[in-house]
Amino acid sequence: SIQNIPQLPPDPLFGLKARYTADTRTNKVDLGIGAYRDQDGKPWVLPSVKLAEKAIHEDPAYNHEYLPIAGLQQFTSAAAKVILGSDSKALKDDKVVSVQTLSGTGALHVAALFIKRFYKGSGSVYISSPTWANHIQVFETQGLKIESYPYWNYATKELDLKGFLGAINSAPEGSVFLLHACAHNPTGLDPTRSQWTEILGAIKKKNHLALFDSAYQGFASGSLENDAFAVRSAIDSFDGSLPILICQSFAKNVGMYGERAGVFHYVSATKDAALQSAVLSQLQKITRCELSNPPAYGAKIVSKILNTPELYAQWERDLVTMSSRIKEMRQTLRSELESLGTPGTWDHITTQQGMFSFTGLSKPQVDSLEKDHGVYLVGSGRASMAGFNLGNVKAVAKAIDQVVRE
Ligand code: LMR
Question: Among residues 70, 93, 132, 263, which is most buried (max CB within 10 A)?
C-alpha cells in the first residue's frame, strides 16, 4: 500500500511566488524568481521573439509534428554556435554532441544521469556555496554525492578565490565541478577573467570534469561573447585532454521561461566518432524514456531567431535592453540607499551582475520586508534586480533602510 509519504516544504522559489501572488497589498513588489520585467513591472516578450513567432505562424509548413528524439537539429546546432562561438575549433573539429532538453534544469538532469551512468570519476559533484537551490536536488535525486566549494566571502562580499582553488586542489582527482558560466546565481558575482584562468588551470591539473550551467549568456553583460568567456576558455585550455559538459538555457536570454528551450552539449576531449555516436545514442535513450521527444514550440522560436540574421541582430539589441535596464536599476537602488544613509555598504549592488543581487540582508530582515512592506525576496537575501523599476525602487530602498535599522 502507499503510505508514509513525508510532506515536503514548498519549493523555496516557487513557494515564494505563491505567497506573493496571494498577497492582496497593491504596493507589493516581487524580487523573487528570476524573470525579467519591463519598466512597468510586466513580463516582456522580446521583439525578436514576436518577429520569430510571426514568421513561424505565417510559414505554410507550420505544424505541430513530433521533433526527433535529439530535438530540432537547426536549434541545437545554432545553440552550440551561440555558446561556443561560430568559429569554434571544437565545432570545426566535430567534437560536439548536442541534444535538446527541457531548458536548463532538463539539461542539468541529463548531465546528472550521464555522469551517474558513464563518468568514472570520484563520484562527487562540487557545487558553489551558495548556489541555485535546485542544483543540489537535481544531482542528489540521481544518487550523486554533493560537495560544496567556497565561493562567496560573506564578510567581504567578494569571491573566495583562495577557498575555491583550495577545494579544487583537495578534491579527489576526477571530481565533477559545476560552474556558473556567468551571472552567478544567487550572488551575481563572477570571477574576473584572470581568476577564471586560475580556476580552470587548477581544474585541468586535477583532471576534474567541468560542468557549465549557462543560463544567462548575453543577459549578464549584454554581450554574448563576453558572457561566454569562461566556457570558451575551458574549451581552449582543455582541448585534447578533458571533455566538457554544458547545460544551456534560453529561459532568461530569450525570455522563453515557460517554453523550456535548452540544450545539453557534450564536448569531447579528442575527436572520436565512435564515442560521440555512442554518447548521442545514450542521450537519446534518456530523452526517449522520460519525455519521448522534446517540446517543439520554444525550440522553433529560438531556432528562427538564431538562424535569421536580422532576428539575431534584434535579439542582440534585446539583450542590451534587458541588461542595461537592470544595470540602471542597480545604480538607482545603490544611490537611493546611499542617500538615505542606510547602515552598511552598498557598492556590491553595482559590482554584481546579471539577474540577481546578493544584498547581504539577513533572513529576519528579508522576513520583515515581506511581512511589513510586501517586498518579496529569497530568504538568502537574493533579490531579482529585474523586479525593480522607477515606480518602486524608492519605496523598496526606504523599506530596506527601515528593516536594516530595526
Ligand atoms: C531563479 O533562480 O529564480 C530562476 O532560475 C527560476 C527557477 O527556476 O528557480
Answer: 263
- Residue 6 has what DSSP assignment? P
The residue extents of the domains of the chain are 12-45+324-405, 66-307
Supply the pLDDT for residue 121.
Answer: 79
> For this structure, is 252 an active site residue?
yes
Of 30, 134, 185, 252, best ligand 1 pocket probe by most atoms within 8 Å of the beta carbon:
134
What is the Cα–Cα distance from 377 to 359, expressed in whole angstroms? 10
Decide if domain 12-45+324-405 falls under CATH 3.90.1150.10.
Answer: yes
Residue 181: DSSP 8-state: S
CATH architecture group of domain 66-307 = 3-Layer(aba) Sandwich (3.40)
Q: Is the pLDDT of residue 40 over 90?
A: yes
In this predicted structure, the answer to whether residue 188 has a pLDDT above a threshold of 90 is yes
User: What Å distances lie between residue 152 and 33, 186, 334, 360, CA to CA?
Assistant: 21, 10, 20, 11
Residue type, 242: L
Is 0.95 surpassed by the pTM of this model? yes
Which among 248, 268, 245, 192 has a CA at the least distance from the CA of 75?
248
Q: What is the pLDDT of residue 366?
A: 98
* pLDDT given at position 141: 96
Least confident of 121-130, 159-168, 262-271, 290-299: 121-130
- Nearest 5°: CA angle at 158, between 154 and 159? 105
How many angstroms separate the alpha carbon of residue 34 from the centre of ligand 1?
A: 5
SS3 letters across 320-385: HHHHHHHHHHHHHHHHHHHHHCCCCCCCHHHHCCCCEEECCCCHHHHHHHHHHHCEECCCCCEEEH
Closest CA to 232 of 91, 45, 54, 60: 91
**Percentage of residues in the chain having pLDDT higher than 90:** 98
Is 346 labeled as catalytic in the residue annotation?
Answer: no
Going by pLDDT thresholds of 50, 70 and 90, the confidence category of residue 396 is: very high
Q: How far apart are the first and last CA of the chain?
A: 52
What's the chain's length in residues?
Answer: 406
pLDDT of 238 strictly over 80:
yes
Tell me what ipTM this predicted complex has: 0.92
Q: How many CB atoms lie within 10 A of CB 257?
A: 18
Q: How far is the CA of 376 from the centre of ligand 1 (A)?
A: 14
